[in-house]
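Figure S4 source data
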Amino acid sequence: MQQLVVAQLGRGQVQEAVLCVAREADLLCASAGFWAGVPVSVDTPYFVASTSKLLTTAMILRLRAEGRLSLDDPIVDHFPEGMLTGLHRWRGQDLTSRITLRHLLSHRSGLPDYFEGRRRDGSRLSDGLLAGRDMSYGLPEVLGWARDEMRPHFPPGEGRRALYADTNFYLLGEVIARVCGTSLAEALQRLITVPLGLNATRFFGPGVSAMPLRHGASVLEVPNAMACMPADGGVVSTARDMQMFTQAFFDGGLVPRGDMDEMQDWCRIFFPLQSGVGLLRFRLPRVFSPWRASPELLGHSGISGAFAFHCPEMNVTLTGTVNQISGRGRPFRLMLQALELVRRYG
């Protein structure tokens, strides 16, 4: 496993890599590279990016278990009257009131993606940030971009359609804070990090350090933006912390076991990923793995190269990062190779 992780260095300009593999009580970790002159380890903090959405999902499910909300709540019920008016206009009708928390979790709201979606002038927020143009924004900007600069893609919950959109989880973060009556950071502590003893998991902001985001050969420095997307991509954590969280998420230690069946209502988003209710499913078609069916992986990944997945077939969880934005398929290849090692030697 250590050789596998070391072999990631230099591929696609990867300079750091961390991997934790766990099956029940057995934990194996490997790491490679240096940060600030110190060897990278399982306790080195990194940006988990969109893997943050899995923690947001857990917070929503914890609040449902406490009776504080329902997945079928219309989102407008959790915002001041009129704040979301016109957010989803479809063929002359305002369908915003039809959007539920379940639609947001499953990316079936039809709302455009404020992060990677194109605005009227053809620009995308993600392009500017990847080019190093840092900026700060908040709920008014996100609502303005989605409502005034973009168009919805389909009516909420229509058929089996899904569109992966950071807008959905940005709104879920707002819902969590409003239901808890606290900041989202305080909600994360109460609902996730304190119960699980996660000492290195927090939202990025002043005083929080992490390995620099790498985009090809460049270091991407956009601290203001990273602090503005907490629920959809702003968590900083470690491979060890994410391993503890992911195992608890899937073994019933964090959310009720019965929620897992409900979450596996799959809709295609982009090959080879499918979206369920708050988590993603990765599985290659048999044509890509003719000798043995590709294992199913449930969890989430991030644009930073971070990943947190569970393989039900083998009862294995995998967490870590290759800390490289370029080459989004690299974390999945690493996980499949790690699972093959577990199958062969474990």
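Figure S5 source data
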Amino acid sequence: MFATYLIGLREGLEATLVVSILVAFLVKSQRRDRLPQVWAGVGLAVALSVGFGSLIQCTSTSLLRTSESRELFEAVTSVAAVVFVTWMIFWMRRAARTIAGELRGKLTDALAVGSLAVAGMAFLAVIREGLETALIFYAAAESAAGGTGPGSLLALAGGIATAVVIGFLLYRSAVRINLSRFFTWTGALLILVAAGILKYGVHDFQEAGVLPGLNDLAFDISATFDPSSWYGALLAGMFNITAAPTVLELVAWVAYAVPVLVLFLRKPAQPAQPAKPARPAEPVPAAAPAADTSDAPADVAAVPSPRA
């Protein structure tokens, strides 16, 4: 449940921040007349995202007849979700400092074109987050014990609702949170969630007969690790940590989680500052030459010394 809540919170806050930037820019620019176009684009993006999630669920439960085809479909969606999670996390870390300026620039261009351009700008800004949320939610919910049931949907809705509240309070400047730290912590947790999704996808590939080793267990700690306990359910639901994984599942989990976490938590290298050129030494003025009286006027050169 917490994994789907975290997905809703993270993706929802990204979309909320994008919308709040667009709305704030229009309000400060005295272009409130364009706000209906922004909300129309946002509404269309949300509707299509919900439709995309329903299509994925319908494909898995109704359109696919055999268990092997369903396992293969879930495996493919799991791998795709891991790719989207990884790309989204690193993209947000790189673009966090410039996203506001880029959105304002694009919205300025859209305002010059017309109403449809403004609606399209808001639609494109939100639809990416919505499609990612639908795909990642399906993969994460399927990898957990509860599946895409009412509990998972409520957890996702709760995360999105929390993100909307935080975004509104940020817009109103009622709260101040360190967004960089927030996205770092949630990004690290989502990497572990993605590792669990990848492990689930490998298991589905094994059940579909695409990958071997379904019965080759890496270890079995069922005697000491109770999957029905609160901690067992928490670890399985969040990170898909189970008591008896196969060798390929364990390899996939570790091979993804360790290097991606290291790359994500490593501080980005600061661009090297160009060295300032050395200041040239000031030239030392040359000594004044001795006075030459050879060309002096006669009346001056012939002046006799005064007598004592």
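The two ends are 117 Å apart (CA to CA). Residues 290-308 have pLDDT under 50 and may be disordered.
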